[in-house]
Each structure stands twice: as C-alpha cells, then as structure tokens.
Amino acid sequence: MTNLEKIAFVGVGRMGANMARRLKDSGFTVAAVYDVHTPAAQELAQELGGTVATELKTVTASADVIITVVTDDRAMKSIFTGGLLTGAKGKLFINCATVTPAIHEWVQQRCQAKGAQSLEACMASSITQARQGTLYLMCGGEREAFDRALPILEKLGTSPRYIGAAGKAAQVKALVNMVMNANTAALAEGLGLGDALGLDLTMLREVFSQTGARSGVLQTDGEDMQNRDHACFFSAAHAAKDSGIALKLAKAQHLNLPLAAATKKQYDRMVQAGLGGLDKSGIAELTFKGRGKGVGTGN
Predict the structure, then answer these.
(1) Looking at residue 3, what is its pLDDT?
(2) pLDDT above 60 for 134
(3) Mean local confidence (pLDDT), 114-126
(4) What does 70-89 look like in DSSP terms, one character per residue?
(5) For residue 294, is pLDDT > 70?
(6) Any residues with CB less than 8 A from the CB of 198 and at least 6 apart, and which?
(7) Confidence of residue 292 (pLDDT cuts 50, 70, 90)
(8) Are 133 and 62 in contact (CB under 8 A)?
(9) CB–CB of 83/68 below 8 Å?
(10) Separation CA 222–CA 186 (nearest Å)
(11) Any idea what DSSP says for residue 233?
C-alpha cells in the first residue's frame, strides 16, 4: 500500500479527528468523513480538504481504506448494516473502537462475504497520542489485512503489534483496560485515604512513584486526582463499558474477578450520578472526603 490510496473516516470525535489530522499530515488523502454529529464532520472536512459524507455508502465509494472509530457494539452493528458495505469489494476496513471481540469477528465475516478485508486496530492510548502518531495499536484479523494496513498504522502509532485472529486483539484490549481501570480506582482510594489522614499528597505521590505503588495511572492521573482536574481524555463511561467487556469474557470462562467487578461498580456509580463524561480520574470524587459535589474539571 502507498499513501496514494485514499482514506475515509467514520466517527470523527476527538480520537477519530486527531487520527485523520495525523494521516493528512503524513501525506495521505483523507477523502471523506462521516459522523452522526454532522457539524463535527463538516468542520473537519473543511480543515482537511475532504468531503462530508451524508450516507455511509458514500464513505465507502470515496476511499480505498475506511477507518471506523465509533463508540460501542451497537454503533458498529449500525454502520456495518447501514450501508457501509455497499460496494465494499476490495476495500479495507480498519476498526479502532473498543467493542466486544465477538463484534470484530462478526465484522470480519460480513466484510469477507462482500470481498472486503477488515482489521481490528485496538488503541491503548488517548487523544494526544492520536494527534502525535504515538498510539499503541493491538491488531487482530487476517495477517494479509494487517500487512496491507501497516503503512497507515505506522503513521498512527509506534510499532503496531499483530496479536492474532479476529477478536484476539479486542480480548487483549479488554484486559489492558480492565487492569488500568482497577489501578485507577486503587490509586483514588490510596490518595483519598492519604488526604483523610492529613498527609501531603504531593509527597505521597512521590513516594508511590518510587515504590511498589508505582503505575502508569499514577503518572497520568495522580496529580489530576489531587487537583480535581478531570478534563476528559478517557471517560468514566468508557471505563465502565470496557470493564464490562472484560467481565463478560471472564463469565464465559467461569472466572470470578472481584476486583474488576468492584471497579466497574464504582464507574457505574459515576455514570448514574451524571459524571460519566468526566475523565476516569474522576473516580477520586467517590473516595475523597467532602467530594462528590461540585466536581471540578480544573477550570
């Protein structure tokens, strides 16, 4: 594949839009964009010099490679039964949403029936990395589809990793987010208890960083928890959804995962309280004394 082939996007929220910008900067033609929120698509299309597709079949007709970045299983089924596979023969669909492994398997079957290829490219990074082209990408599907997609993937992320057959990368992504979410909840409890004990939280974070309490979320979320800065990079609602995916996988294997279940309950509480749009760091609002009302976003 060369960057002479055209790309289109379905789903141009903050992640999808930044991925499109990155590919445009890397010399690819972003021919069309589609989003259920039409103003977002219009603004991005104008910025990138592409067109706004008002129908999914138009997206497929306009490009050789279609990248989808949608929210959940329902959205994936909706686009792949709603016209996206019209005229799909020879096209490649790169699907980046965090959805259940079964959905990726279903998408591959539908694409193959139309003479198209599909690849799941699960992302373990956030908005900033999407713009910088430093996403961590875990990929699943036919090896031939991965090889075809690689020149694009290498512009979006560092060292894209091929995991295996369709659904396998989604399994790994579910486990990544399950562990990340549990770490985030544990960090919120540690800092919350430290605050209740009257400890200096900056000192406590420094000690955590030099001991067995060190974690990736300590670096990304610890200061935000302390300062109540929950501007969203990965939402609590998505954390709840993704922990749920992992728990469904565990149930199918007859495994009991009490920590993952407890973490999901905490994120479900945030969603039920109307806080699902906050960053996952907002889980600290449930553990610090005197919080839970007047939740901040750093403003």
Answers:
(1) 62
(2) yes
(3) 95
(4) -SSHHHHHHHHTTTTTTT-T
(5) no
(6) none
(7) confident
(8) no
(9) no
(10) 11
(11) S
pLDDT digits (tens, 9 = 90+) for 200-224: 999 999 999 999 999 999 999 999 9
Hey, what are 56's tokens?
């999914």
Element at 150 (helix H, strand E):
helix 143-156
* Neighbour order of strands in the sheet with 161-164: 51-52, 29-34, 6-10, 65-68, 92-95, 117-123, 137-141, 161-164
**DSSP-assigned beta bridge partners for residue 94:** 67, 119
> Per CATH, is 170-286 categorized as 1.10.1040.10?
yes
Model pLDDT, residue 293: 57
| E strands in the chain | 6-10, 29-34, 51-52, 65-68, 92-95, 117-123, 137-141, 161-164
pLDDT exceeds cutoff 70 at 298: no
3-state secondary structure of 166: coil
> Where does CATH 1.10.1040.10 sit in the chain?
170-286
**Which residues, at least 6 apart from 79, have a Cβ–Cβ distance to it below 8 Å?**
10, 56, 68, 70
Second CATH level (architecture) for the domain 6-165: 3-Layer(aba) Sandwich (3.40)
- Could you give the 3-state DSSP secondary structure of residue 46? helix
Mean pLDDT, the chain, whole residue set:
95
Q: What is the mean pLDDT of residues 88-102?
A: 96
> Within 13 Å of residue 262, how many CA atoms lie on the same side as its CB?
9
Task: Tell me the two tokens of residue 74.
Answer: 């329902």
141 Cβ contact list (under 8 Å, min separation 6): 104, 108, 117, 118, 119, 120, 165, 166, 169
Domain with CATH 3.40.50.720 in the chain: 6-165
Distances (CA, A) of 43 to 13, 33, 50: 11, 10, 10
Structure confidence by residue, pLDDT tens digits, 223-251: 999 999 999 999 999 999 999 999 999 99
